[in-house]
Specification:
With 142 residues, the protein is mostly helical. The protein has a two-stranded antiparallel ribbon with strand order 1-2. Helix 1 packs parallel to helix 3. It starts with 25 loop residues before the first strand and ends with a helix. The relative contact order is 0.08.
Length: 142
Amino acid sequence: MEPTATPPAPTAAPSVGAPSNQLPVPLLCPQCHQGVLSTYYFCPNCGAKLDGGTLSTTAATQAWIYFFSIILPMFCFLFVTRWPGLKYYRSTDPKAKQIGLIAIILIILSTVLMAYWAYVWAVDVVQSSVASINANIGATGM
């Protein structure tokens, strides 16, 4: 009698915090029961609002959100609709909520700093212009 091979060990189901190289978990739309991905916010078939996809809380995502929050005022809020800070702050996930709060604080601080720097620059330009005009008036002897 020949010995039987041991069966392969069962593989574990992907966890909620699965690595990003795996495909998103498919779900069903509660309205039309079509398959949707867990990252979708709306059903592509019927347009129903879904519970919302899971928000990424990786270090790279955090760095991108924080960087975007700091440079956003420099772009005069042109891309504010793409800024993910509020979406993260409104999340029920505590880590995502913390990321959103930090992003909101960063955007407020960078806005205040940019306003201050703009004020200082404007005052400097006006003072140098006035000094230049006064120097020209004094040189011509009026």
